[in-house]
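Intended use. Records like the one below are meant for learning the mapping from a protein sequence to its folded structure. Do not use them to infer anything beyond what is encoded.
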Amino acid sequence: MKFEELLKNRIIEESTNSFSDNYDYYNQPFPIPFKKKIINFGKAIFFNEFLFRYLFKSGFIFKRIFLHTYRLDRYLNELDFFYSSLEDENSKKLLLKIVTFRILGYIKVRLPLSTPKYWEGIKSVEAMAENNNLVELPYKPWKFQMHNLISINLPIKIYMNSKSIFTTFVIEQYKYLDSNTIEAQKGDVVLDFGGCYGDTALYFANKVGEKGKVYTFEFIPGNISIINQNLDINPILKERIEIVDKPLWESSGKQVFFNDKGSGSILSFEEYSGYEGTTKTISCDDFVELKKIEKIDFIKTDIEGAEPFALKGAERTIKKFKPKLAISIYHNMNDFVNVIKQISDFNAGYKFFLGHATIYTSETVLFCVSEDKK
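Structure written out for the chain above:
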């Protein structure tokens, strides 16, 4: 059955739900009201439920109202390719859930992690925080508490918010564990595209062990200052991590203008009013050749929607080493549907799996493993 038909059926099934405990107030402090006018309008006109379902399935309401309203109608062919390219049933079910969530929202659709254990897990990480041990973020009136993760058997201390720690270290956003296990392993060389505050660098450094290596790419000065503080309180892991202070792109040497606002930083290839610094891009392929790196085992990306460009600049590296990939695809719908096609076109024998590490739309990760490396 094509993805379009599966999505129709899922929307009908989920539209009768009404959840009151399915909202992630940690990351979305002001709930966005669910746009239920579509369903209410349909039921008002087609008050006969059977008739409503029939007309919905006929395609007019589905395509002209639901998909067009959320601008998904243009992506049906790509979604069908995405769905058929996924390797296991759990990945396919997850894709269907995520797309339905994007249409109906949190009142109607409960993603797999939305269970009492999810909230219990976050609370357990909050309990690890040392309230009097803080670092100030250089660009916002926020502070990070230091968390000691020894209680979950991780030799890591980190300044970060509890929710992000939970996502990275407890849920393990960049590990796929189902029909296959896809993760960084002892002795691996990892490219961490998007270092932010250093949580993923520390996560991978702990995974790869003393014989492994992590190159974490981060160029925003305020973020680098937090990374360095996190590395300093983890001296053993610090030895395995190298910060690369360049933005990744499809080619090297392109000038970038930016301001220093953390995840809210504005990047542009054109000079703009209020920019605070400049730097130049580097491609992954050029970096690997410059450093004379002899193997790459794992690439993770979370670079705010620049994934397609960074992947284009990593094509030679991916084809040569066929590393495991964990690619964030949630930043925009074009990436969501097209990154899997981009990697397929590398013809490197990759199989695809899907993960999702929140109970809302963020943190969808496409996992890729080459048949040659399984």
